[in-house]
Amino acid sequence: MAKGRGSALVVMAVSCLLLVTLQCELAHAATYVVGDGNGWTFNVAGWEKGKNFKAGDVLGAHNVVVVSKAGYDRCTTTPRDKVYTSGKDQITLVKGLNNFICSFAGHCPSMKIEIFAS
User: Fold this and answer.
1) Lowest-confidence range among 14-28, 34-48, 67-81?
2) For the segment 53-106, what is each residue's pLDDT rounded down to a tens digit?
3) How many angstroms separate the CA atoms of 8 and 5, rounded?
4) C-alpha 64, offset from chain centre
5) How far apart are CA 21 and CA 92, in angstroms?
6) Distance, CA of 89 to CA of 82 (rounded, Å)
7) Contact between residue 65 and residue 103 where contact means Cβ atoms under 8 Å apart
8) This model's pTM is above 0.70
9) What is the dihedral of CA 86, 87, 88, 90, to 10 degrees?
10) Exposure string (b/e) for 58-70, b if CB count within 10 Å is 16 or more?
11) What is the gyration radius of the CA atoms in the chain, in angstroms?
């Protein structure tokens, strides 16, 4: 019987540690407004330089399409790409490369950013 209680305590301790670790990761997420005070506008490229993005950080912008690297390079979208159009969207970064373009006619290549989140 004592062995069962000890195992249960170990499982509870490990579970609590994992929960605290997860909450700490989420607590460190930052929120960025793309383009800062200028917003998601023409010539936004370069805004991301000097920032240390992490998976879980949140971007706010208007008419943003999450695209593949090829979509970013070519300023093209596919039906599978996620489009955000409310103007108040918040997009959570994933670990690795995150590519975003504006899908309004003529706005890309002046309105696109590529962010690497660690």
Assistant:
1) 14-28
2) 899 888 876 688 999 999 999 999 999 999 998 877 888 999 999 999 988 888
3) 5
4) 12
5) 19
6) 12
7) yes
8) no
9) 90
10) ebbbbbbbbbeee
11) 20
- Bridge pairing between strands 89-92 and 82-84: unpaired
Give the tokens for residue 52: 């240390």
On the CB side of 61, CA atoms within 13 Å amount to 29
Token pair for 42:
């023409």
Higher pLDDT, 11 or 29: 29
Amino acid at the residue 35: G
Angstrom distance (rounded) from CA 70 to CA 52: 24
What is 4-69 written as a DSSP string?
A: HHHHHHHHHHHHHHHHHHHHHHHHT--EEETTGGG-S-TT-TTTTTT----TT-EEEESSEEEE-H
Tokens of 63: 């008419």
pLDDT band at 4 (very low <50, low <70, confident <90, very high): low
Nearest to 107 by CA among 82, 85, 79, 80: 85
